[in-house]
Write a structure and sequence with these properties.
single chain; about 25% strand; alpha/beta
Length: about 150
Amino acid sequence: MAIWQQRRLDELELDYLLLDASFFRYHVGAAAEPVLAAWGITTDGKPVFVGLDTSAAESTDAWSGFLSDLGARGLRCPLLVVSDGAAGLIAAVEQTMGAALRQRCLIHRSCKESRCSFRLRGSLIWYAHRERGPWSAGCEIRGVVSASE
């Protein structure tokens, strides 16, 4: 793994760089810790796994270090960086790859919006039950929620 993490990236010319962290629990009872990941799409349209590293937090410093390491190994700034809305990640991308355009991942955005929508729907139904009884959350309430989604 160490050899792969230290390989040169000069030959990669990326149009898109996708960045995300996943949290894993390494030991029973321990807090989950982030693993930072980068993958991309080359100018030829081929997917490539660019980098992977562990971190103590998903912070600006952690992401800046990760992205700076990729740059030090020869990775050039892509045209577009795609990421979630994590503030530390966004700040690190702006610091290390300022020339790249940045877009929020549509999957992350839709997941967040659907969670919000479910919370909104639950709140509306709870309110209707409280105000008008358990059978009052009828079509008009559901129609309002569905129309706003």
